[in-house]
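Hi team,

Filling in the usual template for the complex we talked about on Friday. All components are listed, including any nucleic acid strands or ligand strings, so the model treats them as one assembly.

SUBMITTER: L.P.
PURPOSE: interface mapping
COMPONENTS: two
RESIDUES: 467
SEQUENCES:
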Amino acid sequence: MSEIRNVSVKDVEEAIYKLALDAAYHIPEDVLEAEKKAYEKEKSEVAKKVLETIFQNIEVSSKEEFPLCQDTGLGVIFMEVGQDVHFVDGYVVDAINNGVERAYKDGYLRKSSCNPLTRENYGNNLPAIVHTFVVPGDKVRLIFDAKGGGSESMSKVQMMKPADGREGIVKTVVDWMIQAGPNPCPPTIVGVGIGADFERCAVMAKHATLRKVGEPSPDPVLADMEQEILTKINNSGVGPAGLGGLTTALAVHIEMEPCHIATLPLAINTACHVNRHKEIEL
Amino acid sequence: MAEYRLTTPLSDEDIMKLKAGDTVYLSGVLYTARDAAHMRMVKALEEGKELPFDVKGQVIYYVGPSPARPGKPIGSAGPTTSYRMNPFAPKLIALGQKGMIGKGKMSDEVKEACAKYKACYFASIGGAAAVVGSSVKKAEIIAYPELGPEAVRKLEVENMPLFVCFDSYGNDLYEMAKKEWANKL
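RESULT (copied from the run log):
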């Protein structure tokens, strides 16, 4: 029998606090690298100007007086818990919420959570959205994704017909992203979930946006689809900030799982050009 | 594509010289309002009440800034997605509002109102929020403070870089740009 490892939820709270602040002010390096490569390839003068402004914004934000974006998002946490972990010193979800609340207060980050009907702002950015996965081992891996409303609104789940197949999926994703145009703050990272069921394909789509930018799927069939969709989206001409150019998306990332013989669930989730996410293992 | 330096309030003459694709460096007073503030303002109009500020000649910036650090007038302040204001913008344009600043597409009704009443929709770069925030000189909340980031603020800006998206002649920069750069890979 494996040993049980105690993990204090106070350490989880502290980790979330630091990840949230880091995400708000410092862009992930892989995202910046992808944008620099796009800048080299761009032929549109306006697109180059937009990318230069994005680089300037990253520079200003790194001094930690102004967050990368005023929409500092809801806190979305992907938590992988090793099955040999035993949380102590409190309830882990409370600890995550405490970490988010403190970071958004201390870091001068915008509180964006509200009542869906009255639109009353709760003023604390709570609750965080926590996706928990039980995995082998005795570690806890936390990914903090600061998810803004602009890119999140340009997402969808569509229950396709099995007969739609690969071609139908490619067309749906491409058409959707072109139709979204300037709204999700391009250049975007497009996350796609295929299969599983209704809600799980949505979680896969969001999780896919957090993969290292441009790293192809290990499945060659999916890697090929990612490339085809990316080329078609970038041939739309939408460009950075929707002002025209060759870079509408930086990458397309697909995750896929088996589905029911009667279904073909498809989910699309977009990340904007700052794609703020940070992770740690405890 | 011309470049202009303009100061608010804007006149019909200011608007009529602008064409989709032009760059404008805007200075002066801007008013901020987004979803919740627009809902309240339009409700006020329907009830025959006064708006928190006179929209004549003014430019409304669709933004919900992050909190200001001590000693700063405002936090980060990039544009929010504009289509959510589609139901409200034509009503305010009819009252004399001369411009909106935001990001993303707006509706044909907004485009038509811009042509009919001489107004412009200015596109700003979504996500360039730290750059814009650091260029705001003054900010004060003038209405609906309980809305937090969605309160109506009066801002003073200097040379805020904008692109003319809808001009007063029915043109749309996003559509023009997309056409120009399609199928170039």
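MY TAKE: The radius of gyration of chain B is 16 Å. Chain B touches chain A through 49 residues (CB under 8 Å).

Thanks, L.
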